[in-house]
Amino acid sequence: xxxxxxxxxxxxxxxxxxxxxxxxxxxxxxxxxxxxxxxxxxxxxxxxxxxxxxxxxxxxxxxxxxxxxxxxxxxxxxxxxxxxxxxxxxxxxxxxxxxxxxxxxxxxxxxxxxxxxxxxxxxxxxxxxxxxxxxxxxxxxxxxxxxxxxxxxxxxxxxxxxxxxxxxxxxxxxxxxxxxxxxxxxxxxxxxxxx
Length: 195
Fold this sequence. Notes:
By secondary structure, the protein is α+β, with helices and mostly antiparallel strands. It has two domains: 4-79, GMP Synthetase, Chain A, domain 3 (2-Layer Sandwich), CATH 3.30.300.20; 90-156, SH3 type barrels. It has four helices and ten strands; from the N terminus they run H-E-E-H-E-H-E-E-E-E-E-H-E-E. The chain has helices at residues 4-17, 50-67, 90-95, 153-158, and strands spanning 21-28, 35-41, 75-79, 100-109, 112-123, 126-131, 135-140, 144-149, 170-172, 179-181. It has a five-stranded antiparallel β-sheet with strand order 7-6-5-4-8. A three-stranded mixed β-sheet has the order 1-2-3, covered by helices on one side. A two-stranded antiparallel sheet has the order 9-10. Strand 9 and strand 10 (179-181) form a beta hairpin. Helix 1 (4-17) crosses helix 2 (50-67). It starts with a helix and ends in a 14-residue tail after the last strand.
């Protein structure tokens, strides 16, 4: 498998050139279905449009083909982090302060690895979380194995799309079996192989 740090070194400048922030780079699927999964967002909106995904995917395909950091064949998957997003950067804990999160540590701290509660931000390299029954708790950022926001009504409201324009406007191709959001009458805007 390819080295995540090497992949990030290649991918991050390409995302930044498009005005996007890289959230996560991960190889998934094992040897049977190797997939390079990456999540990105617009720093100003914390969202990613379909057009952003397409532009980043095309740009990365060229950069990854040139660098060739993955020995075997693989699929490239580009997406937004989603509502219940992973928390991968130290800054995420300040950005999502006040929202509920679930964190898993690499090694137990005070007899437990799992923590769930309201994020309180961070102090230096320590993530602060208000855990029911424990109160405010500090966890070392370097010791966090995985973390993600918990889907709540508050989170859904905070991450509502900036625009829902076109969300109810679904068209179908000539066969009537493949939905395409708002295609033009001439087929412009469709990805290769969708016409």
